[in-house]
Amino acid sequence: MTQMQTHPPDQAIEEDGPPQAVSLDAVSKVFGHAGDATHALDRVTLDVARGEFVCLIGASGCGKSTLLNLVAGLDQPTSGTVMVRANRTSLMFQESALFPWLTVRGNVELALRLDGVPKSQRRGRVHELLELVHLEDFADKRPHELSGGMRQRTALARALAQESDVLLMDEPFGALDAMTRDLLHDELEALWTRTGLTVLFVTHNVREAVRLGNRVVLLTSRPGRIAEEYPVDSGRPRRIDSSQVAELAATITDRLREEVRRHGDPRS
Amino acid sequence: MATLEAELAGLDALELAVPPRRSRASRIWSATWPKLGAAAIALLFWQIVVWSGWKPEFLLPAPATVFKALFTNLGDYVSASATTLQRAVIGFAIAVVIGTFIGAVVTRSRVLRSAVGSMVTGLMTMPSIAWFPMAIVLFGLKESAILFVIVIGAAPSVANGFIAGVDNTPPVLIRAAHMLGAKGWTNFRHVVLPAALPTYIGGLKQGWAFAWRSLLAGELLVQIAGKSSLGRDLDTARQLPDFPAMYATMVVIFVIGVLVDSLVFGKAERAIRKRYGLIDAAAAD
Q1: Most exposed among A28, A159, B21, B27, judged by the fewest C-beta atoms under 10 Å?
Q2: Do residue B182 and residue A142 have CB atoms under 8 angstroms apart?
Q3: What ipTM does this complex have?
Q4: Is 0.90 surpassed by the pTM of this model?
Q5: Residue in A100, A138, A183 closest to B277 by CB
Q6: Nearest-by-CA chain B residue for A71
């Protein structure tokens, strides 16, 4: 079921060191004990190349978020190994998780401050980061004064402030309206093309996964296993309503539904 | 990418359209009239009870008589209030320092939390008057006896407010702070403390109420020679008897309580809740 494969990223990367930014080798995660144990992940093996954009997709209970937590180092696997070859990882959540007492600028600046960036350099860096997500005019607003999309862009700027090479995203656009989401897809794609970040993106929206990823990894639910991997060949920038995206999304959706039906079958 | 930029800017502008704010005068008026109305209804009720002849008028004088007594001796009430408020502020300040320290220590350690946490709540349920015999035995009939009871009455609320504030921090913020590399003191200073602030202010507010109550009980019991205070005036007026003065003192105690609560703590609480986005900005004005 699991397969070891690495796909070359779209753009050139340095040739030194192994090409994988993230390697999971037979990773299992079990919550609870014996009788009522939940197998969130079962022997998952996955490599993410440097500079690659990988989308993880699956129905509820497939352990997508568990997998991200393992890569982020917020949790330890029950067995198997998680290797992250990066200076550090940053994580974006479905909720923006911005600090409500700080302004947009304050939130981004705190990330720099916690990183030990000297005060003299922070102001300029914050401005650059806010320009990157087109929020420089809203630097003095507080999170509750922003729309959901703007909050996520601030969270993105905060994540980028950490200058990590691996960006983990846990359904970051899940709570946004469709129009905002489409725009943020464009923005994230542009950013990724420019920076060469490695992105591991979790979603339950198949089209979103195909729209964004170099590769879409489909996980089964309870236990979470890798069911299938789909390389996405269409060029960039992509459109979510293009026929290529729609076609691959339909194939993946069929496979996902098959997976979901299996859980509704009382004999299984 | 110019299109993307323009589209994002357009969407931002559409989503942030805010309704125009009302004028300052109209906001102040709309915040004040319900309070004035409530005061008027309370006075009217008082007057009706007097008119009903339920008690003879020298025992329960009409509002007008009481306010007349209040304004003829206003100077005395001001100086008595000053003594009482000074005690309240000193006692409350000590309670804040001790309560915050206990709260901060307790939230740092799981063992301490289970050991001290429920005891703090237990202390809050203890009526302040029950501490006085002990305070008088330990400190004598002195200021320090009153201060002791204020501190022991108010500090648990402060500590509890702090602990609750830390406990109520949304887990996602803790995870976010962890991912940003916040640890130890830096995490405490930049994340834990500000996250706890709204609930902490609530604890301070409650602590003040406890302090004020304990203080007045204390001033009735522990009367220090030559020092006029609100609690002492209240007792003296009853013994003389000068009932209009007694009621006037009660009015002063009540008004100070209301003013401090709404002007100091209410204002601070609203400002913080507004800043944190915990209330509708329009409703906060």
Answers
A1: B21
A2: no
A3: 0.81
A4: no
A5: A100
A6: B179
